[in-house]
Structures
1.
Amino acid sequence: MAEAVVRIEGLRKTFVDLEVIRGVDLDVHKAEVVVICGRSGSGKSTLLRCVNFLEEPTAGTIEVAGMKLGPGLPTRTRRDQIRALRMHAGMVFQDFQLFPHMTAIGNVMEGPVTVKKMEKEEARSQAMRYLEQVGLADKAEQHPIRLSGGQKQRVAIARALAMEPDVILFDEPTSALDPELTGEVLAVMKSLSTDFHKTMMVVTHEMAFAREVADRVIFFHNGVILEEGPPDEIFAAPQFDETKRFFQAVL
């Protein structure tokens, strides 16, 4: 089996007195696509946000591309460690999070220029390659307000790719899109797996995508991994009633 790009051990996350993640262990291997599904409020998005420390874990450790971190005080050293870890874990949000005052290519260039200190001409050339990859080279000079939701999300994917991360985290990337725009985003995500062999963790309700693209489907329930397996196995013969009811509702 390929090396683990992401290794989660004993992860717990508590908000005030509510424990949202309750002791999760998970490895994600190089070039693997892991789809995480479950009911709203099950903790799946919080799990994803803990991987790149948008949420601070309460307990346990996160390791990405060999960089291992657990809970800690917000010292300068720790902030530097988190910043370094995030360079290996790209994030695509459900609401795009594009800079509205920047063009599409400006959004894609921003991380390499600001974080990696890449020369602007090199960053621009790289950004154009990634915009071409997501089918938006002709929209490079457009601002987000002039783009459709699907186009905005594809720019967001190009922005994540521009940092050349070891894993890309997708937090319900199509949930804010109209159905006719969902397909274009899922097609790009499928291409990232089949053509470019990217390692991906995807929180989504798009079970057709999971069936076609995922190497492993994880059913998250009440802050724990209740069940996991290859798509064909977990869809055809779920072991728990909670999983069966969920798939009956979404398939």
Note: The chain has a mean pLDDT of 95.
2.
Amino acid sequence: MIVIFYVLSFLLSFFIVNALIPPLAKLAFRLDFVDRPRKDVERKIHREPIPLTASYAIFIGFFITYLVTARDFSLETLALFVGGVLLLTIGTIDDWYKTKGKDFPALPKFLVQITAAVLVYLSGNAFTGFYNPFSGEYLVLPVVLQFLLTIIWIFGVTTVINFSDGMDGLAGGLTAISAATLFVVALAKGQSASALMAITLVGVTLAYLRYNKPPAKIFMGDAGATFLGFMLAVIALDGAFKQATVLSLFIPILALGVPIFDNLFVVIKRFMQRKPIYQADATQVHYRLLKAGLTQKQVVAVLYLVSVCLSLSSIILLLIQT
């Protein structure tokens, strides 16, 4: 694909999100769709009501840009769109409950996230196997294993990005770094569709970060965080995981290293303490660093740096493979 299409995708997605966020923020205040500070919740760091409408700008900016530049109206794109709408809908309901000081049940969110992942699998985008490092033969996994690994990957990445959205600029920045890494990987592998999706995701997240950097003027809520996680998972599945070797299977895992490793620790800890996995608390690394005495900006900077280092490691791993 010509370089101009990647540049156009980045610029168009950036400008759409940048233009939509201010009016959506005003609408949020009119509808009282805002995240209010609560003294009884340890995770609530902000002190002023923050609008929760950035998710719609991100969603609109991504799909308008991708459809205009890629002109891909395939079954895979339809599954991606429908899955994104489902996540946006259930995320909005969850966010609305939170604006009223209530918790939305975890089961409906779980079922919708699994449904979105199944749609992607049924559209033909799946983890099918890998190359044997000794024989060079492509090993096709059993269909049941293909299904399970695909669903677990999409659901897992969707969840960890959502769990990481606990501090101004954090989830958006980590997504931008991961998407930029997956863009480089897709380019190196000659996968233009994945590269286009990845650079579009970089554009929407950087535009969002203009308003979400500390101190944040807008949040994307669960609706936006799950959508970003879903998109990252699908991009990796369609790009980095496609026809991978055993060693290169670690490339997307390293590219998403900070949210994956941090939230694996959190889930294991909650499991050992017999707490519900979906029960929000302050055990993520950003809260622990905050308790250690770092400021919000310092915490975000440290985690950005770690994410960049892991992403560079994944690119080095890619270069070793080629």
Note: The chain is about 70% helix and 5% strand.
3.
Amino acid sequence: MKSFFPDLVSWYHLNKRNFPWRTSVFSDVETFAYHTWICEVMSQQTILSVVLPKYEKFLLQCPTVYSLAQCPEHTLRELWSGLGYYARARNLQKGAQYIVEKLNGFFPKTQEEWMLVPGCGPYTSSIIASICFCQPVPAIDGNVIRVTSRLLELTDVWSTAGQRKINDFLKINFQNFFYSYPFSINKPTSFDVAPGDVNQALMELGATVCKKNSPLCSECPIANHCLAFQHGTVHQCPPSKPRKQIKEEDIYAIFFEDKEKKLAHIIQRKIGFLKNTIGFPLFSSHFSQSFLDELFKFAQEHGATLEYINKNFSHSITNHKLKGKVVRIILNQETWNSSWSKLLPSHAEGQWVPISKLHELLSSSLDRKAFSLLC
């Protein structure tokens, strides 16, 4: 079968949207790779209208992999504010530190090498390797899944077998097309279609033409290759992705404050969905009543003041919808080590910090929401 790549890429060059990472002229491949890496991580699970101003501000503050590796925690958190999923920023910095410390500041070139960089999964490693280093590997995101499912008229796309069919189809097409041409790892010199262009064109097609709803099949450059278009089954491919069941849960954030109201106790979490974040001790509603009874008893026995804040905050993480409440406990630090610290999770490390600096130290939006109820 004739490859659809040339028609697709020709369309892409004429119709692609102008983003800074596409229109910038880079003096060297290392800078190109760094900018591409930043934009790809930012764009995951975040709409582009939000990414654009953040991307430019981020690069002004962290123009190189070295500056990102050394970026202070509070600055990184501020640069990432509004993008969500802050773990991406932490992993991005870990990746930068890996590149600086292990690779002497040189970026990996192949997908396999990128997979060794902390925070880089199959998609990120493939898209950077293909765009920046012309590696002939497919990068599969939601748009690419939709386009490919329609090309193949494939309805079973969300199972392991369905994902394998999409991956195998694209992998074979990349291999058959690109290995039939003279090839250079740094720049394809004898043909107009580069691996990175194919990946970006597939994503662009899915975002602007082969849309989930109201696809513009009459404008599609590869409609003559599309089995779903030919058979009138476009709207059936792919079926909606099965939704994960949303779990609703009540949680309590405990705000420990000294009697002078100058210091608060926060913890470094070691496990759970907020792993590696700094914030308040959190307790689930699964054992909230017994825990609250224990807190009240402790407060009476140790001369502490316990106050329930008569407000709630809401927070969503993956498939969890949380309704949070805050309990303020005012106590003497002298009794902390012998008594109150026993109530904290054994897997967390805690410290007393000035309340005036608390907002910049909290690394999760959940904790900042809880703290806002106290202000």
Note: DSSP finds 16 helices and seven strands in the chain.
4.
Amino acid sequence: MENKTAIIILAAGNSSRLGEPKQLLHYQGKTLLRHTADEALLITEKVVVVTGEEHPQITEQITGLHHIRNENWSGGMASSLKVGLEETLQCFPETEQIIFTVCDQPFITASVFKALIDKKNTSPKGIVASAYADTLGVPVLFSSAYTQKLLNLNGQEGARKLIQQHKDDTDSVLFEKGYWDIDTPEDYKKLINP
């Protein structure tokens, strides 16, 4: 099913709490954005990166990758989800399921993406989310049945809203370190100096 799966990397935020683009933070020899993209490419060639605020160094990180700029990135997460989804469906119309992920989870690996796909292959549910810290979140896989619902999201609404609304149609896989994301300088310091 990997060939029917696309992965959309949401990398449009301006990292206001961090004070610098989180996409460009280095961890284990790569930027967080490049690490996420490389892990996604181990699963599928259908990888789309959604960028936002113009930043030449971010563009450098995604050279050779399919990417699109969300002109309305400051309008909230929903606009990036929609831009990424529309671009993916236009470029890869054979896509049957989409994984949304972010670029600030330093412990994301191809095995997490593969676990979502494997679970979907054996589950009748339309959503497979990552489970960590007593919550369900990204990376999250949506079957094509959720395309219109994703396109109908607004403002700051993201994938979590649909997970909460459709708990009865949601399965999960454990991503123990999924809770670890980088939002503040303190988060990053803890990551590089544990």
Note: DSSP finds seven helices and nine strands in the chain.
